């Protein structure tokens, strides 16, 4: 079995395969661990890595075929050369949400840390995708193990609620309104029963796109909650949002704004483009919106 595995590894590592795996752009899932491998300085697509690939790749299989009694049976030694080939591989077509710079936010991209020195305690949390974070430094001379940060976290949570209110006000000023053009009409608003931009009207020619989406998702039109959420993909003049469709009559939601259906982003496939791009002027206000993969462009009318 070991000989067969190494034969396969040798064939895979042949020079005819290397140009394929090293020619494409890096593709990786939105996970901090894989991103860390991609950003490691030691991962370099150079000639030396190519020369040593056969040896390093077969070395991985040496770890896999060890006897069950081996103390490091479950461990594979880190090998940056092999990981570089995997990460730079473009030979396998991946789903849209696995590709770089896709609009789906990285839900794992939350960084936090705690510290405790004598009577001082600290805690910080950062969400780089959303340019948000907080830091707490507390001092308590009476507590034997430093101050209890739970109370301070509650205070921070109150501040976050205020930030949410400010964000909703800013979103209203920037994005709420009606956008029209020869190709159709779109109207966006905010609501008290949930976050995001509520899509109240969306037509392309004579077609009601909201009705088409509801039909494709198996949702009654009156139960469709169609919202847009900002992604971390954008520039100084454009900002990409992601469309999320909720069935308000579903038992898991029952008309509430909890909406766990964001987990099914892009579940309708190519029939529905969930990417919506706003063009922003110098003041930060949306002046244009592009939908349907760029085929529908609408300018602000109100």
Automatic annotation (TrEMBL):
Domain of life of the organism encoding this protein: Eukaryota
InterPro entries: ARB_00930-like_C
Keyword Signal in record: yes
Leader peptide range in chain numbering: 1-23
Keywords recorded for this protein, A-Z: Signal
A Pfam family per the record: ARB_00930_C
Ranges of residues in domain Beta-lactamase-like ARB-00930-like C-terminal: 167-294
Protein name as catalogued: Beta-lactamase-like ARB-00930-like C-terminal domain-containing protein
Originating species: Colletotrichum lupini
């Amino acid at each position: 079995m070991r000989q067969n595995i190494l034969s396969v590894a040798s064939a895979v590592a042949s020079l005819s395969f290397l140009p394929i795996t090293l020619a494409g752009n890096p593709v990786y899932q939105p996970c901090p661990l894989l991103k860390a491998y991609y950003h490691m300085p030691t991962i370099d697509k150079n000639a030396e890595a190519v020369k040593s690939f056969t040896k390093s790749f077969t070395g991985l299989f040496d770890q896999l075929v060890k006897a069950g009694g081996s103390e490091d049976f479950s461990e594979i030694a880190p090998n940056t050369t092999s990981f570089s080939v995997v990460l730079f591989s473009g030979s396998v077509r991946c789903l849209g949400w696995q590709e770089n710079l896709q609009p789906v936010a990285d839900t794992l991209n939350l960084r936090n840390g705690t510290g405790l020195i004598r009577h001082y305690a600290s805690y910080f949390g950062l969400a780089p995708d959303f340019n948000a974070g907080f830091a707490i430094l507390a001092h308590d001379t009476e507590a034997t193990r430093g101050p209890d940060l739970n109370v301070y976290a509650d205070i921070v949570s109150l501040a976050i609620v205020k930030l949410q209110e400010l964000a909703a006000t800013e979103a209203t000023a920037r994005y709420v309104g009606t956008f029209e053009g020869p190709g159709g009409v779109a109207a966006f608003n905010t609501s008290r029963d949930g976050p995001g931009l509520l899509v109240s009207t969306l037509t392309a020619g004579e077609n009601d796109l909201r009705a088409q989406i509801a039909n494709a998702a198996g949702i009654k039109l009156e139960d469709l909650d169609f919202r847009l959420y900002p992604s971390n993909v954008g520039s100084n003049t454009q900002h990409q949002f992601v469309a999320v469709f909720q069935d308000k009559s579903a038992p898991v939601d029952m008309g509430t704004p909890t909406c766990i259906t964001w987990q099914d982003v892009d579940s309708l496939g190519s029939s529905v483009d969930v990417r919506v791009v706003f063009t922003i002027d110098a003041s930060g206000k949306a002046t244009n919106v592009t939908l349907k993969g760029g085929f529908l462009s609408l300018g602000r009318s109100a």
